[in-house]
Amino acid sequence: MLDDGASFDKLKMRYYSDNYRGVHASRDIPKGETILYVPLKEIITLEMCMQSPIGIQMFNRGFRQRLLSPKHSFFSCFIMEETRKPDSYWAKYIDILPKSFEVYPIFYTEEEMSWLENTDMVRMVKTKLEDMKKDYDTITTEVPDFKQFPLKEYMEKRLLVASRIFGIDIYDNKTDGFVPYADMLNHKRPRETSWTYCNKRQGFIIEAIVDIKRG
Q1: DSSP string, 62-88
Q2: Do 27 and 100 share a domain, yes or no?
Q3: Are the beta carbons of 81 and 53 closer than 8 angstroms?
């Protein structure tokens, strides 16, 4: 990221445990100051995903309109394709994405699901599983190359996409994207930052909307 002009010197990542990390201010940040800048070259956009080898086949079959979660499926496919490339430009980014998904409800054990008995969560999890399986079956039926991706891996990547992509507007084109480092920041209410894609700077920026103290 630094080689491509990204800026994140005001941020510091901390690990609270092996699978839990967060981002803190490494110094005092005045209101209005840019906290993070990520150039377009470092952003995986929906258009990029639709132009991958399998993404093109999916697009040509009208999956952008036909799937239950089309953009999530295109992003998932792209990540799975790039994971299998030994020289992928995105290898370093993919390597820091989570590898464990036990904390997501759709991967709960039967015992864990039993704790949620008589709540609407059980129905929601079942519906989500059915929707993912339906999209997966639709793609594998019509795009033979997609069969190399196991259902479980597809589901895991779908969860990564759903929890990480940002909606952005690039030159009046509304799209979505994986934005490295930005997806490490946790939510807070009331919010202390704003984020957008800046056409003038040709990159994604996060700015402070209040004074933020170090730490």
Answers
A1: THHHHSSSHHHHHHHHHHHHHHT-TT-
A2: no
A3: yes
Strand partners, 174: 169
Residue-range definition of the domain harbouring residue 187: 1-43+179-215
- Please count the CA atoms within 13 angstroms of the CA of 189 that sit on its side-chain side: 0
Q: What is the DSSP letter of 24?
A: E
Model confidence pLDDT, tens digit, residues 117-145: 999 999 999 999 999 999 999 999 999 99
DSSP designation for 215: -
What would the two tokens of residue 193 be? 């930052």
Instruction: State the CATH number of the domain containing residue 114.
Output: 3.90.1410.10
CA–CA distances in Å: residue 85 to residues 11, 41, 79, 88, 105: 31, 19, 10, 5, 30
| pLDDT mean over 16-37 | 92
Question: How confident is the model at residue 148, as a pLDDT?
Answer: 95
143 and 184 housed in the same domain: no
Q: What is the pLDDT of residue 168?
A: 96
Query: 86 and 129: one domain?
Result: yes
Would you tell me how many other CB atoms lie within 10 Å of the CB of residue 138? Answer: 18
Q: Which of 94, 96, 71 is nearest to 177 (CA)?
A: 71
* Cβ–Cβ under 8 Å, residues 78 and 100: no
Rg value, the chain, Cα: 19
Strand-strand pairing, 193-198 and 20-25: unpaired
Q: Do both 186 and 100 map to the same domain?
A: no
